[in-house]
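User: Some background: our group keeps a shared notebook of sequences we're curious about, and every so often someone picks one and asks for a predicted structure to add to the entry. Today it's my turn. The entry only has the sequence so far, pasted here. Could you supply the structure so I can complete it?
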Amino acid sequence: MNSILELRKALPPSVPSNAHNGALVVAEVAQSHDGSVGMAHAFIDAIAHAGADAVKFQTHIASSESTTREPWRVKFSQQDVTRFDYWKRMEFSETQWHELKRHADEKGLLFLSSPFSDDAVDLLERVGVPAWKVASGEITNLPMLDRMVATGKPIILSTGMSPYLEIDTAVERIRAGTKAFAVLQCTTKYPSPPDAIGLNVLGEFRERYRCNVGLSDHSGTIYPGLAAVALGAEVIEVHATFSKAMFGPDVSASLTLDDLKRLCEGVRFFEKMQSNPINKDDAAERAGDVRKLFFKSIVYRRDLPAGTRISAEDLAYKKPGTGLAPDRASEIIGGFLQRDVRGDDEATLRDVAK
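Assistant: Of course. Here's the predicted structure to add to the notebook entry:
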């Protein structure tokens, strides 16, 4: 099985404390910057602060990926007459892409961007992306996929709209030329309802492709990502937004930055649990002093004179657990007291003779 550690080797040298060896958490900006390079930079700062490992954009070059006939998925923009116009407005210059990559490096984030044309692949190669993210809609674009594979860089493949036949073909091409790759379950519904997430597919991918697997989640919640990590996912990708009130087609399917922080914390919490199994017997032994606080001892219910034959009604069970444990009551019951005792005195085996 290939290792996601190949992706981690691509992290910048000055990696901050949020770097680790667990699941790769990718926060996607996509078009949430709405064409503003300043907003894109602000996302990099916020995503690094939230604790994610990678920031991901989308690289659109309108004239290379679309015709003016491309229909709207959702007609959300009044300022763009056509979908082509929208992609045009989402473009950044090559200089701006270099600046975004440099900023991500400085923040210790893996810089990723999904290309949507051969020209975008070439541009991102010049920018120096350390790995490729293949969007769901590009899985059958084998010429472009081959272009990415030829670089030898790790590839993360989303599969949102594809049957196994298409995924099989893409994985075969990828496996021929890359050191590491991951296949992500993805549901292209914005936002994705619980019954469309498909966590069962993670196991199917792992068995079918013998590779790292992950989830590209569009639910707008932290729950699928946490559940996927519990099932062994090596990559978690979510959309990020500054606010659910922001403008754009992906906002309803995005996590706020606070939610992203909670997701990252939850993923690391789970990984720490998973990597630290406990031995129940050892844990009980180490809890010795705490046990005395919570456990109970056998005590006498009332004052009793020597010679009294002890019955169950003569005993009570009270904290602290510094004396004889309640499960040993049968060793006291039926015996004759060898001394006078007072109520709440701890019972001992020396107190009785049978």
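Suggested note for the entry: The domain at 5-274 is CATH 3.20.20.70 (TIM Barrel). The chain is about 35% helix and 15% strand.
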